[in-house]
Amino acid sequence: MDTSLYKGQLKRWHEGKGFGFIQPENGKKDTFIHISALKRMRRRPVIGDVIHYQIFIDSDGKSRAVNAKIGGVAEIKPRLRRPKTKNNRRKKDNAFKLLTIALLVLIGLFTLKGFYNKKYFFPTPPIPIISMPVEQENPITFSCNGKVYCSEMTSCEEARFYQNNCPGTKIDGDGDGVPCESQWCGW
After folding, report:
1. Which residue of 59, 103, 123, 136 is 20 to 30 Å from 177, comparing CA positions?
2. What's the CATH number for 2-70?
3. 169 near 147, Cβ under 8 Å?
């Protein structure tokens, strides 16, 4: 890279593409400039601006402007970050240690409380199992009484009985094995 400082006037600028050409003061060939070479300027360049720049020659022999400044336009100062001091790090380390200790103490208290509540203060009495007799209803018995259609049935159970035990019924219209779907057994 050439460390010499050159001066020229911006001859052409393509705003949408972010590049243009500088006509050097010495009258030599125009120099290519990309917007990235002007990254610290307070505004974008316009045709006619005086540009101060250095020249960089690419590996393919093409030259371009780098480290450029627009004459008479202020630069944006980079923000300086203050390095972290040992005190800031120490404060963060101490806060982390205190938080860790507090968390461990809380876990210990909850564990201890659960242990004492179970063992000493609130023993759980055994729950007695009480068995209650369950009354069974008398099962309804069906018999083949010549019913053929669903409209003659009174329940899904009766329709199933007729389908499985009585010949000549017409209660499974779609043949899927479920009788009287639209009247009794379709829910």
Report:
1. 136
2. 2.40.50.140
3. yes
Domain spans, the chain: 2-70, 150-185
What's this model's pTM, rounded to 2 decimal places? Answer: 0.42
Give the 3-state secondary structure of the chain.
CEEEEEEEEEEEEECCCCEEEEEECCCCCCEEEEHHHHCCECCCCCCCCEEEEEEEECCCCCEEEEEEEECCCCECCCCCCCCCCHHHHHHHHHHHHHHHHHHHHHHHHHHHHHHHHHHHHCCCCCCCCCCCCCCCCCCCCCCCCCCCCHHHCCCHHHHHHHHHHCCCCCCCCCCCCCCCHHHHHCC
| Tens of pLDDT, residues 70-107 | 998 888 887 777 666 666 667 778 888 888 999 999 88
Amino acid in the structure at residue 28: K
